Amino acid sequence: MTAIEVTVNGRRYREVVEPRLLASDFLRHTLGLTGTHVGCEHGVCGACSVRVDGAAVRSCLLLAVQLDGAEVRTVEGLAPEGELTPLQAAFRETHALQCGFCTPGILMAASELLEADGPPTRAEITDLLSGHLCRCTGYEPIVEAIARAAGTAPS
Amino acid sequence: MKPVPLEYRRVESVEEAVSALAEGGTEAKVLAGGQSFVPMLNMRIARPALLVDVNRVPGLDGIATANGHLRVGAMCRQRALERSALARERCPLLASCLPFVGHVATRNRGTVGGSIAHADAAAELPLALVALGGSAVAESPGGRRTIPADDLFVSYFTTALEPDELLVETVWPAARPGEGFAFEELALRHGDYALSMAACVLRVEGGVVAEVRLVVGAVAARATVVDVPLVGRAVDVAAAQEAAEAARAAVAPSGHLHASADYLRHVTGVLAERAVLRAWEGAA
Q1: What is the pLDDT at residue A155?
Q2: Side-chain half-sphere of B33: how many Cα atoms within 13 Å?
Q3: I need a labelling partner for A20 at 20 to 30 A (CA). Which of A4, A107, B211, B255 fits?
């Protein structure tokens, strides 16, 4: 067992974990942050994407012990309780989700894209979404939502 | 879909890493970006007793040029190299294949050295290293050695690296005057593993090909160099089609769920033809 200290959504946690524990399971089971969804556990579906020290990464491809000292942001940390970020609001407006399973991962990845210099092009948005499986929407509303949040699509 | 119980060691230096690897022997594995390796852990295809995590070793993520080469630290994230103006300017072939490596979120974490050491037959970076005639630098308790790409890649997921060796740097020959480059890939969806791919490096002098290297991948156990009789000639469609035939003859792909062997062989020729033509256009 290994002791780790990690900041998640601004709150500091000290936990003792087994080295083989995946970061995704650490967030969900140890910390109870079940907004991070676990789909494929081999890096394909993108549902478990979170931000680690700013970078959007697959939490199923990280070990919890690797988070020691890191600053993690999950979907729970995007907006204060009861509020939505402009990106989340755009998802709601454009019906960019139905079952919502893929949504947290896409929100975390898109939040990184929206923080980059300049608004993303449509090609950059679809390139980003190539790393996320959504079986409900057909992706078009998601592209629209991200473009709206970036201010590049009429709202 | 969870890794086997294992011991984890986070090392702070190359020396510490190679001594841990030497101690652990074949039961020890290096954990770099983990974008291919952690899936293998999760599926228990890999069941190491010891993980040596090199993510916090300082000084392994540099991007620099020296003596006509781009030198990339093993732990340089693929995304960092993709965004590097130096890499784009000095090593256009490498830059053009990086967007095909997985997805943004996997490139954020995946490393250049990890992809090379993993030696997936369908991976873009090993193909580019072979096409450019680059090399890898490995360190072990016995010292440091440089391994040319042609010797490094042995077969599927197999390199010439010894169990106690750590890949610390990859070396990519920089573009020279008169050189053109092209990378072509076919995958079912962008970011998926390639069904087939081709890379061409071609140098033109006095209106004809002075040097050419055509390499195809994902259709053999490792990146395969195709012998193409283009030196001394100008490249036109007929010449590129000859290269395509040579590429088809050089590989013996196995068919799989997504494509038959005949289809893969055909596509490999198409990609080779396009790569040769585009490299020629870029050089001329």
Answers
A1: 58
A2: 31
A3: A107
CB burial class (10 A; 0-12, 13-18, 19+) of residue B142? exposed
φ, ψ at A24 (rounded to 5°): -60, -45
B11 inside domain: yes
Q: Residue B101 pLDDT more than 90?
A: yes
Instruction: Dump pLDDT digits (tens) for B122-161.
Output: 999 999 999 999 999 999 999 999 999 999 999 999 999 9
The answer to whether residue B55 neighbours chain A at the CB level (below 8 Å) is yes
In degrees, to the nearest 5, what angle opens at C-alpha A59 toward C-alphas A56 and A65? 115
**Residue B209 shares a structural domain with residue B264:** yes
| Domain shared by B208 and B263, yes or no | yes
φ and ψ of B11, to 5 deg:
-95, 155
Interface test with B, best of A20, A41, A146 (most B CBs within 10 A): A20
Tokens of A53: 């020290």
Specify whether the CB–CB gap between B63 and B80 falls below 8 A.
yes
The number of folded domains in chain B is 3
As to burial, measured by CB atoms within 10 angstroms (0-12 exposed, 13-18 middle, 19+ buried), residue B176 is exposed
Distance CA A45, CA A55 (A): 17
Question: Best of B56, B78, B103 to disrupt the A interface by mutation (most A CBs within 10 Å)?
Answer: B103
CA distances (Å), origin B8, targets A54, A57, A79, A107, B17: 25, 21, 35, 31, 12
Neighbours of A36 (CB within 10 A): 25
Q: Is the pLDDT of residue A154 over 70?
A: no
- Domain ranges, residue B166: 63-173
* Alpha helices (H) along B12-108: 14-24, 37-42, 78-82, 85-90, 92-97, 104-107
In the stretch 59-88 of chain A, residues with CB closer than 8 A to chain B read 60-63, 65-66, 68
Tokens 């994902």 — which residue? Answer: B218
Q: pTM of this prediction?
A: 0.96
Domains (ranges, CATH) in chain A? Answer: 2-77 (3.10.20.30), 86-150 (1.10.150.120)
Residue B99: phi, psi to the nearest 5?
-60, -15
